[in-house]
Amino acid sequence: MPEPPHRFPFRLVEPGIAQVTPSLGASLPRQEHAPDYPLALALEAMAQAVIAAPPPGLERGDAAPGIVHLAGIEQGRLLAAIAPGDRLEAHAELLGRFGPAAKVRCRLERDGTKVAEATLLLTFTG
Question: pTM to 2 decimals?
Fold first, then answer.
């Protein structure tokens, strides 16, 4: 798979390990002093974590040097607040492959407690 674009508003802090730390400056769409991240950023973090540390059955070379697109989201939800500076661990399970697409069940955990989850459809173009 291609290298993840881990930039603003969060970054993967340990190459090869799906650890995510949301940055302080993220503002999509949150008020300047709002303490929590929106679901959209949690979904993006999960998608990028899948690219950085693919689950078994979804190998890094599957799409290289192509592009990975977040093509669909099912049952995405926040289970707890996510704040800037949280150290989150991303987990993913490959549910199925459909040609250039993969369906992946993802979750973010903070200190072993699930804070977000979703099923993502990722597509690969070359």
Answer: 0.77
